[in-house]
Design a protein that fits this description.
By secondary structure, the chain is α/β, with parallel strands linked by helices. The chain is built from 10 helices and 7 strands. It is globular.
Amino acid sequence: MKIDLHSHTRCSDGTLTPAELVQRAHTMQVDVLAITDHDTVAGIESAMAAQAQTKRPLRIVPGVELSTSWHGFDIHVLGLEVAHNDDRFLQRLETQSQRRQTRAQKMADKLAKAGIEGVYEAARQLAGDGQITRAHFARALVSMGAVKDMDSAFKKYLGKGKRAHVKPEWITIEQATTWIHEAGGQAVLAHPGHYDMTTKWLRRLVAEFAEAGGDGMEVVHSHLSPAKQQLLIDMALEHGLKGSAGSDFHFPNRWTELGRNLSISDSLTPIWQAWPWGQALQQLMAGNTQ
């Protein structure tokens, strides 16, 4: 049984359409897939429609990855099993999109002052109808020959403190958990092992996330060392958070793949146990291991 609760489509900074992501999930034998684009749920209906045309079972979990600000850090909070057609939730996500759009324009202005014109237009074309993100700016800079690769784009221009960085005006973690809960979902701290912070700050983040009403945290995600994974498990247990696991898939590659190595420790309660169909899933998983 493969469960992957963090993935992206072209509706944000992934490279596959929702239908292509569904097909990729089938290719990789994924059984449960959460689609969690940045600050949008635009790809979920298309993914569900694509799944309806296939014979192999695949449970699609409606999700989102909300951008938040916390003590100067950009922290992402996943909303899983959200009511993705809820009008109030959609209106709230639109405010995030507007903030994202404003930030993109400011980044483009800074890049123009640095002598690189036309980056917004190139990034917008790459994003299509989806959310425009820094990843699109990085890809645009690569395609324009301004940098050699995406990593260089962030190190030279887009990263924190660099020439084209613009401090985002995201919602708070408390707001994110409220939005998710009022949309019927559960709030999960995304990829905590990837934030550029000390262990002391990470402990504080997890504690404050739990205090803000967070339900779970990703204790398994890509490029996570065994020691860091154990640290996350221990912190989740300390604060009563459920366990979640996701690849944070953006495109097919040899380092990050859908459903790969995402087993959650038996010491944690899986986030899906709280969902209406979660108990049946857990029983099925238990049966597969006997």
